[in-house]
Amino acid sequence: MLYLYLAVGGFCGAVGRYFLASFINRLWPGSFPLATWIINLGGCLAMGFILTYTLERLVMGPELRLGITTGMLGAFTTFSTFSVETLHLLQGEKIPLALLYLFASLAGGLICMQTGIFLARLPLSSKALSSIITREDGEE
Predict the structure, then answer these.
(1) How far, in Å, CA of 105 to CA of 97, rounded?
(2) Residue 52, marked binder
(3) Cα separation, 76 vs 66, whole angstroms
(4) What is the pTM of this model?
(5) Residue 74, annotated ligand binder?
């Protein structure tokens, strides 16, 4: 069953990355690889949040957790694309932009991961929790 979770998660992550990157690249045609940067930082934020939340607060089987983190987020984020884009910037003699991308990606990834962990650990009040579980009109 683990392989099914990984495969479905990987498919969703790869397709999601393709469509989001295509959308961002249409909006931002500049030299800075904004799509990969946004996707990787968003993945770091999601990874920190999901791992912390599912290990500390939410009962979730390890197979599903691996399907979401290793499968979906692993396919969604991409170190190889980051490396290729950095190399292209360097080969195009855009050294300052390449260094900015390297620093912004590494520092941003760590900051986003820590932010995800922080958000997952925020206390939920009983009122907030009950509004998530039950709508105000009393229907589930």
Answers:
(1) 12
(2) no
(3) 14
(4) 0.80
(5) yes
